[in-house]
Amino acid sequence: MQKAIISFVASLIIGFGLGYLVFDVMLGESGSEPKTVQAENSQTAQPKEESTDTKEAAAKTVSVDDDNILNKRGCLGCHAVESLNLKGGAVGPDLSKAFINVEGKHGKPIEEFLKQPTSAVMSGVIGKNPLTDDERKQVLDVLKEASEK
Fold first, then answer.
1. pLDDT tens digits, 28-47
2. Helices (H) and strands (E) in the chain, counts
3. pLDDT at res. 27
């Protein structure tokens, strides 16, 4: 009897967890605009005069507005990119080093992973809503920048 109760409780927890993952995380934003994620501003006071290096760095920095490909495609609903100060969800791993680490973890270069992911969750996410070639290039540019910081 005790074994049956433990099996029931474990099945219940697994069932609710998978239901949440499939219906809320993966399908929850499919018919709506992705949530806009706000980055924390680490600088409270800006110098009156910026150097050329600072302006160039700011031009390269990924914005957190709707023009950001990771925000536009809903990636930040599950993932954060701490190296770019992009706050996002905690369900997926931080993408700061994804440009470098994906091949070792998933057995294929990141370019190929974004076309056909080998992880169960990402194959469901990208499989239902594949990236265009231009979007894939934008994601790669952002992830490359994140890995360089």
1. 544 444 444 444 433 434 44
2. 7, 0
3. 54
pLDDT in tens, 73-86: 889 999 999 999 99
- Integer distance in angstroms from the first to the last C-alpha of the chain? 56
SS3 of residue 61 by DSSP = coil
Count the Cβ atoms, other than its own, within 10 Å of residue 77. 20
Residue 116's alpha-carbon distances to 17, 75, 98, 128, 130, in angstroms, are 25, 16, 15, 11, 9
**How many residues are recorded in the chain?**
149
Show me where the domains of the chain are located: 1-33, 63-149
Cα 50 to the chain's mean position, in Å?
Answer: 31
Residue 81 in tokens: 């990119």
Q: Is the dihedral of CA 94, 95, 99, 105 positive or negative?
A: positive
